[in-house]
Design brief:
The protein has 367 residues and is α+β, with helices and mostly antiparallel strands. The chain has twelve helices and 15 strands. It has one domain (3-363): B-lactam Antibiotic, Isopenicillin N Synthase, Chain (Jelly Rolls, Sandwich). The strands form three sheets. Strands 2-3-11-8-13-6-5-4 form an eight-stranded mixed sheet. Strands 1-10-9-12-7 form a five-stranded mixed sheet, with no helix packed on it. It has a two-stranded antiparallel sheet with strand order 14-15. The chain binds 2-oxoglutaric acid and fe (ii) ion. This is Protein SRG1-like. It holds the Pfam family 2OG-FeII_Oxy.
Length: 367
Amino acid sequence: MSLNEANVLVSTYIDEVPTYASHVPVPNVQETVRNNPLKVPERYVRSEEEIQKVLYMPQLSSQVPIIDFTLLSHGNKDEILKLDIACKEWGFFQIVNHGVKIDLMQQMKDVVAEFFEFPIEEKNKYAMPPDDIQGYGHTSVVSETQILDWCDQLIVLVYPARFRKPQFWPQIPEGLKDTIEAYSSEIKRVGEELINYLSLILGLEEHVLIGLHKEVVQGLRVNYYPPCNTPEQVIGLTPHSDASTITIVMQDDDVTGLEIRYKESWVPVTPIPGALVVNVGDTVEILSNGKYKSVEHRAMTNKNKKRTSFVSFLFPRDDAEVGPFDHMIDAQNPKMYKNVTYGEYLRHTLNRKLEGKTQTDAAKIQD
Ligand SMILES: O=C(O)CCC(=O)C(=O)O
Ligand SMILES: [Fe+2]
C-alpha cells in the first residue's frame, strides 16, 4: 500500500457533500451577445487604467517553461530541476507528453461546445443556485455594483465521486457526463503525479504532499468567453490566483486569452496544441512559506472568436490543515502565513470577488 492510500484510510471519512459559497446571479453573457452583438453593457466596461496598468509583454510568451511529463516520470533530474525553476520563477508552465489522448481532449471540447450551443432554457436546467458554485452561471459576484466578467461558466465537483451533485451535471448532449468523467480521470492521474513531484522539490518524501490533502478534491470549471465587440474594454476573467494546490488548464488551440503576471507585466500563454497549462495554487504558496508563488492571471476576450477553457482544480479536503512547513522557516525566512484549515481558506476565497492576490495576502501573518 502506498503512503497515500494509507493516509486516506487512516484519515476520518467525510461523506457530507460540501457546499462552497454564495453569489449574486448575473446575466448570461452568451445571450447578451446573441441579442445584441455590438453593444457591451455598462456593467462590463472597465477603465483603461484597470486593463492597462500592467505592461503587456507578448514577446515573453516563448519563455513560459515547457515541461516534458514523460521525462519527469522517468525521474530525469534535469526535468525536475526545470520544474523547480518553473514553479519558483513563473508559477506557470505547459506540459507535453502527459499521455492524455488527443482524441479524448478533442471529445471534451466537442461535447462541451455542443452544450453551450443549446438554448438558454435547456442550459438553465442546470443553473447555479445562489447558495453554491456548482452548475451553469458565474461565481465570485458579491454585489450588484461589481463590474462583471465577460464569461459564462459551468462548474462541477468531480472527485471524490461521493461529493458530486448530479443535478448540476448536464444530461445534454448525451455523453457529456461520460466524457467529463473520462477526461477528469486522466487529469487526476497527471495531477496527482505532478503533486508528487512538487512534494519532491519541496524537499519532502514523494507522497507527503498528497497525504496532507487527506483526499485530493478535484473540480472542473469550464469558462466560456463569447466574442466581444470591444475586447479592449472588458475582462473575461478578473485577475486572481487560484486557491488550489495545482490547476490544470486545457485551452483552445487557435485562440489566446490566458495572461499571467510575470514581474511587472502580463504575458499571454500561447496555446501549444495538445499541451496542458499547469499553475501552482495558493496551497503551495502557503506550504512553501512563499518560496513558490501562486501567480496572478486573467483571461482576455476576442473580437471575433469565442474561447473556452477547461480548468481542473486539485485541492485538499476541507479538514486538511495547511501552514508553512517547518523546514521552509528559518531566521532568513520567518513564518509568513498563518496555519489554516483548508475548508475555511477556500470558503473565504470563494465568498469574495476575484481580486488579484488579496486572499493570500489575508492569510499572511501581520507584522
Ligand atoms: O481561461 C483561462 O485560461 C483561465 C481560467 C482561470 O484562470 C480559472 O478558471 O481560474
Ligand atoms: Fe485561475
